[in-house]
TrEMBL record, chains A, B:
Bias kind Pro residues: ranges: 1-11
Organism taxonomic ancestry: Bacteria, Bacillati, Actinomycetota, Actinomycetes, Kitasatosporales
Domain of life: Bacteria
PROSITE patterns: HTH_TETR_2
UniProtKB keywords: DNA-binding, Transcription, Transcription regulation
Protein name stated in the entry: TetR family transcriptional regulator
Amino acid sequence: MAQTPAGPPRKPAPDTARRSEKSRRAIYDAALALVGEVGYARTTIEGIAARAGVGKQTIYRWWGSKGDVLLEAFLDLGDQAADRTAQPGRDPHALPDTGDLAADLKLVLRATVDELLDPRFEVPSRALAAEGLVNEQIGKEFVAKLLEPSLQLYVDRLRSAQRAGAVRPDVEPRIALELFVSPLAQRWLQRTAPISYAYVDTLVDYALYGIAPR
Amino acid sequence: MAQTPAGPPRKPAPDTARRSEKSRRAIYDAALALVGEVGYARTTIEGIAARAGVGKQTIYRWWGSKGDVLLEAFLDLGDQAADRTAQPGRDPHALPDTGDLAADLKLVLRATVDELLDPRFEVPSRALAAEGLVNEQIGKEFVAKLLEPSLQLYVDRLRSAQRAGAVRPDVEPRIALELFVSPLAQRWLQRTAPISYAYVDTLVDYALYGIAPR
């Protein structure tokens, strides 16, 4: 925080902080609910403010556009999910690394199945993804700020597996992760077929060991 | 064609058939161009008719809705692509089957890369896919009539590979094909990363032989 001529910044009083946190969460919830109900194009700052029970100016004080509000709302949703599965002493976003790559990937992908089937996440995510397909700028932000950082967690896990000899050294992790992440994403996004724990387990086994005879 | 009480159906005079074929193609071209330019929601039968230079009634005589026109326009686009790569004496839609599974899959996926990067195909496809994400009914038709039939061609090729011993007998072809099809689809649809011949070649190698050491 920049210092003002009046002196160093003051920490907000506990009541103010609590009120701000409550407003912030109400705004995230309202933004996610609205985009799920009416789509990205018809979601407005006014609509979010009304639903959250805050003034429009409260939103404009913290965010520049509805796109910014929504991206942060999704990031926050991801943080909440990460907190629920965090392991003590580790980065809450890092993938588990027990030394058993197949088991670790299945654990994470099963949790992703749960998340994708949770309506709180599913409906707004689908609306944002749809907007990203036709609106290149929103799509790029969505990929750069939400999707790619989560894919990099798989890159890290696969690199660790390469050091442990569980993945061939010539394999490119950024491509390899797509063998199990993209099929799940496509089934969910385009509703081409159901998703389940058994399905993601199968993807991991095929990706690790290949479909050709060994 | 059903017989009418007036007698057996007559073949249209050659001039009429040629005129119909020309109108049909003009309507497909107009529908694809419009949905690419203004999106699915703002594409109308009136707009397609005006752009194709035909009367609205011409369209309503052949199709029930704009969704029907668009689906057939995409099917026609796929038929044109299949005709260009057809092998004599074989179903033009079937995947090549030379006995070398990796080579056959790479050939088809490289052709798919070309198609996905062709603006005539890319822009309307993206618009239709985006609509399918949020409009469940359009999405289901898109998947059932366009996407799933093309995926079944991979199922057929993988079953043939299983009979030839090139794919393990316990592998489920409908899931296995997603290891190379879905990554390409996601990169293209969500613009997560570039697509190229080298990329799809890598996907095929990883899917066939796995990323774990052999």
